[in-house]
Write a structure and sequence with these properties.
The structure holds 2 protein chains of 2 kinds. Chain A is an alpha/beta fold. Chain A contains 19 helices and 21 strands. Chain A has 4 domains: 4-178, Pyruvate-ferredoxin oxidoreductase, PFOR, domain III (Pyruvate-ferredoxin Oxidoreductase, domain 3); 197-377, Rossmann fold (3-Layer(aba) Sandwich), CATH 3.40.50; 384-456, no CATH class; 458-572, Rossmann fold. Chain A has helices at 17-30, 76-82, 114-122, 128-138, 144-155, 159-178, 199-209, 224-232, 247-259, 270-286, 313-318, 334-351, 361-365, 436-448, 450-456, 479-491, 509-518, 532-541, 559-572, and strands spanning 4-13, 34-40, 47-57, 68-73, 86-95, 108-112, 195-198, 212-217, 240-243, 263-268, 290-296, 327-329, 354-360, 367-370, 420-422, 461-464, 470-475, 496-501, 503-505, 521-526, 547-550. Chain B has one domain (4-257): Thiamin diphosphate (ThDP)-binding fold, Pyr/PP domains (Rossmann fold, 3-Layer(aba) Sandwich). The chains are: A alpha/beta, B alpha/beta.
């Protein structure tokens, strides 16, 4: 019997929802399962309602499911909120002594004295999370030793580790002895050594592998964890992360570091990016390579601070006045976040321009299992560099007009060449000028860099039958959900395929026009309110889409909700 | 040997008689006297008449956005700590648009020299009041008189700057001496420079400054006394103190970055394979 098991951990902020969720994901990843897990949290430190969903499957999964098989309820509120999502014969794990009245549902109700067991067996009620975790594993007859190993890794071999192990054991044994129902047995699979990581972690690994030496940023959900990870690794990887006074300082500082010759980035979310806009243009006119991470969240302004949206696409394409080239990439999956970031640094330096990486809260904070990344595939290309061995440094001109539009870079202080640049329009040497001919030459030179860049844009990902009647079009983090929705719809007999973009600018006009012109129904699936990709497709290819499946409530799509929406659209047309 | 000709740049587009000429001469003299080669210097400027200065001398130049010269200067200094980084700004650029960066660069004590051409008026945009215009100063944008000015020296002192000074564009020898001290100082060094604007400020003229400016070096004054420094920073009107107002040895931001202990970041090699050991943390 195939395994596709959906756990949910629910509770207040501060109750350890994240910790239990992560450990659940980890123990099943260790057992050889594929994981996709997401986090839903409010913008508060204590109280409210948070949940963490963990999908465990024996095949690769890239999205969260709608249904819940096992709910670990750390408070009563979680049961009330999520009962409708629980499948028939699902399981609810809760504190049976604190939560008396749970009824009206045909789930197995596993009331367990979580707090009491924590106090009696593990020396404190703080351990109740781990008791619940042990109980959950017991309810699927999963191996407890893996959890013990993971607990020691997380809490150490001392007292805290031991007490966690005791707590897990107490929960596990309680379920085995008190509930003799014939629970399903989830066996260990092969000893697969997959990585379990979030989108932001994948992105950070990509940045470090690509040789990012400098990051400057200002904390903002969902990008703050990028700052924290980079800062934590700064000593071991010769990199510097500066927590700046604001986002304006952040982007300008990164530009200064990049001008001086190191790979540099910043990371923020929508309204932080609003403050950075002038820096995008500065990088554009000074031809300074920088990588800007925009972890999207619902806007405008502060919007929904801890939730997800894909509402920044048209903003990042146009942010800043004037004409200059840029690139926009949007990772499709957590693994992709690594490779896209590596690519972003290469493109930034090869074409000497700002590269914007669009992720979102969903991708940033969701976990997935990923095959161990193959670092031998990371090739570093620092672009065209000026050599003082071959050329006279006194002839150096930072903004030399060339056929490709790319001028060799020299780094200030490393040689005799003087590196001069200006946010005013400048001549080839970099000195400010108002000369009409020089202005025209510099604008054209900068825009010429787009031509070779256009050729680098990969063909959008395609999935499903060729020449299908219906094409679902998406971009960025919705890849996994749309992919699975295509499977669902095909199983129901629909003739459907998918076109998915993760390299958005320069726009892959020909490939998109080709795909869009072939299908009779083409629906965009977007986490925003107006169908920003649909508008971009119209502008760039002239084609209209036949429908827009949009979600802008701050929550990610599930495959089932996409499939349902597609069926509805098909009825209407 | 480094001579003035090494620092001969483009012809300035400033008004004849502008105080900026004196500042340019003092900077060039300081660099020559310190025997610094132009390629070791990075000048980062903002927007305003002061922001053009780097084009009129020689060195590496990053002429940045209005109000923003400090952040790129810090980024460049961290990327290549061997560069001598001098930020060239004006009163609008430094204390208006870029006020936040000024406060935080001072408290973090980045190893950069911050020269602010302070003519108490906007020159490039033609004569509007600046954040340092004297109270009551009437311009097209302040027809009923400017509000109370910011006090950059006092701000720098209370925000933890480790070197706070004031020069006068009309006293090139003294200004040269201050710039040399500022460059030599380890940490954030502010040099606020009284600069006459002959086109738009008919109040704070060359003569006006000359009558009021006096040198702290000529008095019995200890620039290491923070309270005394604050008192001097508050002095304005009939007498205006110039020289080193405050000086202290404080931990330098860049010295505290472990990544820089192996030399400048820009000289570090990129090796993706080093990330292999991080991958293990996720399995």
């Amino acid at each position: 019997m195939p395994v596709d098991l959906n756990f949910m951990v629910g509770g207040e902020a501060g109750q350890g929802v994240q910790s239990v969720g992560f450990l659940l994901a980890k123990v099943f990843a260790r057992g050889g399962y594929h994981i996709f897990a997401d986090q839903d949290y409010e913008s508060r430190i204590r109280g409210g309602h948070n949940f963490f969903r963990v999908r465990v499957s024996d095949r690769k999964v890239g999205a969260i499911a709608q249904d819940v098989d096992i709910l670990i309820a750390l408070n009563m509120d979680s049961i009330e909120r999520h009962q409708p999502q629980i499948v028939t014969q699902g399981i609810i794990i809760f504190d049976g002594e604190k939560t008396k009245e749970v009824s009206g549902h045909n789930s197995s109700l596993l009331g367990i004295p979580l707090e009491k067991l924590a106090e009696e067996k593990a020396g404190g009620k703080l351990m109740l999370n781990t008791v619940a975790l042990g109980a959950a594993l017991s309810a699927v007859n999963y191996d407890l030793n893996i959890l013990n190993t993971v607990l020691v890794e997380r809490f150490g071999k001392g007292d805290v580790g031991d007490r966690n192990i005791a707590a897990a054991k107490a929960g596990y044994e309680y379920v085995q002895s008190e509930y003799k129902g014939d629970f399903r047995k989830i066996k260990l699979l092969s000893e697969a050594k997959r990585m379990l990581l979030t989108g932001n972690e994948a992105l950070c690994l990509g940045a470090i592998a690509a040789g990012c030496k400098f990051m400057a940023a200002y904390p903002m959900t969902p990008a703050s964890s990028i700052m924290e990870y980079m800062a934590a690794k700064s000593k071991d990887f010769d990199l510097v992360m500066v927590h700046t006074e604001d986002e304006i300082a952040a982007i300008n500082m990164a530009i200064g570091a990049a001008y001086a010759g190191v790979r540099a980035m910043t990371a923020t979310s929508g309204s932080g990016l609003c403050l950075m806009v002038e820096g995008i243009g500065l990088a554009g006119i000074t031809e300074t390579p920088i990588v800007i991470i925009d972890g999207q969240r619902p806007g405008p302004a502060v919007g929904l601070p801890t939730r997800t949206e894909q509402g920044d696409l048209l903003f990042v394409l146009h942010a800043h006045h004037g004409d200059f080239p840029r690139a926009v990439l949007a990772p499709a999956t957590i693994e992709d976040a690594f490779w896209v970031t590596v690519k972003a640094f290469d493109w930034a330096e090869r074409y000497q321009l700002p590269v914007i990486v669009l992720t979102d809260q969903h991708l940033a904070s969701s976990y997935a299992t990923v095959d161990r990344l193959d670092l031998s595939q990371v090739a570093i290309d620092r672009g065209m560099l000026f050599s003082e061995k071959e050329d006279d440094p006194s002839d150096y001109m930072r903004h030399k007009v060339t056929k490709s539009g790319i001028s060799p870079r020299a780094f200030p202080g490393l040689g005799k060449a003087l590196v001069v640049t200006d946010c005013d329009e400048h001549d080839e040497e970099g000195h400010l000028t108002e000369d009409a001919r020089e202005r025209t030459a510099q604008v054209q030179k900068r825009l010429r860099k787009l031509l070779p860049l256009e050729k680098e844009i990969s063909t959008p990902r395609k999935y499903g039958s060729r020449g299908a009647e219906t094409t679902l079009i998406g971009w960025g983090s919705t890849y996994g959900a749309i992919h699975e929705a295509v499977d669902m719809l095909r199983k129901q007999g629909a003739n459907v395929n998918m076109l998915h973009l993760s390299e958005l600018w320069p726009f892959p006009t020909r490939a998109v026009a080709d795909a869009v012109s072939k299908a009779s129904n083409k629906y965009v699936i977007e986490n925003n309110a107006t169908g920003q990709l649909a508008r971009l497709i119209k502008t760039e290819t002239g084609y209209d889409v036949s429908g827009r499946i949009l979600k802008f409530d701050g929550r990610p799509f599930t495959p089932a909700c996409i499939a349902e929406a597609v069926r509805k659209e098909a009825h209407q047309t | 040997m480094i001579t003035t000709s090494d620092y001969a740049g483009l012809k300035p587009a400033w008004c004849p008689g502008c105080g900026d000429f004196g500042i340019l001469r003092a900077l060039n003299r300081a660099l020559v006297e310190m025997e610094i080669e132009p390629h070791r210097v990075l000048m980062v400027s903002g927007i305003g008449q002061a922001g053009k200065l780097p084009h009129y001398t020689r060195g590496n130049v990053f002429n940045s956005l209005h109000g923003r010269p400090i952040p790129p200067a810090i980024g460049a200094k961290i990327a290549n700590s061997e560069l001598i980084v001098i930020v060239i700004s004006g009163d609008g650029d430094a204390y208006g648009e870029g006020g936040n960066h000024f406060l935080h660069a001072a408290r973090r004590n980045h190893d950069i020299t911050y020269m602010v051409h302070n003519n108490q008026v906007y020159g490039l945009t033609k004569g509007q009041a600046s954040p340092t215009s004297d109270v009551g100063f009437i311009t097209k944008t302040t027809p009923y008189g400017a509000a109370s000015p910011v006090n950059p020296l006092a701000l720098a002192i209370v925000n933890g700057a480790s070197f706070v000074s004031r020069g006068f564009a009309g006293d090139i020898d003294h200004l040269t001496h201050l710039i040399k001290k500022g460059i030599t100082h380890r940490g954030f060094a502010l040099i606020d420079i009284l600069q006459p604007c002959i086109s738009f400020n008919h109040k704070n003229t060359f003569q006006w400054y000359k009558e009021r400016a006096y040198k702290l070096e000529d008095e019995k004054y200890d620039p290491r006394d923070k309270r005394a420094a604050l008192e001097k920073a508050l002095e304005w009107g009939d007498k205006i103190p110039t020289g080193v107002i405050y000086e202290e040895n404080l931990p330098v931001y860049e010295d505290q970055l472990p990544a820089l202990s192996d030399g400048p970041l820009v000289k570090q090699k990129i090796d993706p394979r080093r990330v292999e050991r991080l991958l293990a943390e996720f399995t």
